[in-house]
Amino acid sequence: MTKKPSIFKILGEYFGTHPLAVVGWIWVASIPFLGSLLLASQYFRLEAIHLDSVWDQVTLTLMISVILGFALLPTTLTSLAVGFFWGWQGFLSLILGYIFANILGYWMGKRLNTDFLPVLFRRNPNLENEIETRMERPGSLIFFVRISPVIPFAISNFIFASLDIPLRKVLLYGVPGMLPRTLIAFATGMIANSFLGAKEAINHPTQLAILVFLLIFSFGGIYWSWKKGKN
């Protein structure tokens, strides 16, 4: 009886033959952190951006789309910054920016993680039917992945793209899943007296309690969605 290769061995073989995928995963895992450090030292430059016209709103939307789509900043810090610097004036740009960033991040994931499922299924054929069965109705899985405070936006885009989940469903179920964390960070920024104070407020016990609740809720939902997909 042939022993099935472990998922880690399969991933190692895949990344060994797909260097662009390696670059992509390192990028989405590390660049948001470096972007956070840069924003913390240069945040005052955002004070020069005013939303006095429709074109200003369009410009902010495009900025958010590119920043989040290319994983230059975490979504939580971006929401906090929009809430602090522009308040409700910037909220529509934030939501639209999220949507366009979804599309851009998904597109990047598809381009960089080519042939992921064929390689996975070729090395472990039993997984094909199991994953395809679960991906027939991926709505709840997408929602709970997006609501999780520990699964970064950019990484989840790569995961959805690698699993070949249709972009339409990623948007339909993913955008609502992002709203709780977005609103919490946005509101924190709005009521803060300073940007650095708002950034520190994320570690407030109340905020941490909310994040723990979202963590338990999301992982419980992910487990339930995955088990439900077997039936």
User: Biggest sheet: strands, sense, closure?
Assistant: none
Could you say which structural class the secondary elements and strand pairing correspond to?
mainly alpha
Q: Which term fits the overall shape?
A: globular
Order of helices and strands: HHHHHHHHHHHH
Mean model confidence by pLDDT: 85
Estimate the helix proportion, in percent: over 70%
What is the CA-CA span between the terminal residues?
Answer: 28 Å
Could you tell me the strand content as a percent range? under 5%
The residue ranges in which pLDDT falls below 50 over 5 or more consecutive positions are none
Tally of domains: 1
Q: Count all strands and give the number.
A: 0
Number of helical segments with 4 or more residues: 12
Radius of gyration: 19 Å
Write the layout of secondary structure elements.
Layout (H helix, E strand, L loop, with lengths): L6 H11 L1 H24 L11 H16 L5 H11 L5 H22 L3 H8 L2 H9 L4 H9 L5 H10 L4 H25 L3 H7 L3 H24 L3
